[in-house]
Amino acid sequence: MKFPVLYQRVRIDTIQIKKKQPQLFQARLDKLIENTKKGIMYGEWNDNGRLLEESGRRQLFGVSDPACEYPDLEYS
Question: Which superkingdom heads the taxonomic lineage of this protein's source (predicted)?
């Protein structure tokens, strides 16, 4: 399963900003790995839907079809 690029960037950022706090860094990394294995997107990475609104969707995901909500998401 492939997650949206914005989701990936937000998750990576929330982990890497804690690199000077090894325990918190590791806990966040473990949570990301666990949820990724389960195919779960977690957290408020899209600002409660605001970042996926019609006007912003194409710009954020580089999609020409506004009906495509998650162009990078592959379903298994």
Answer: Bacteria
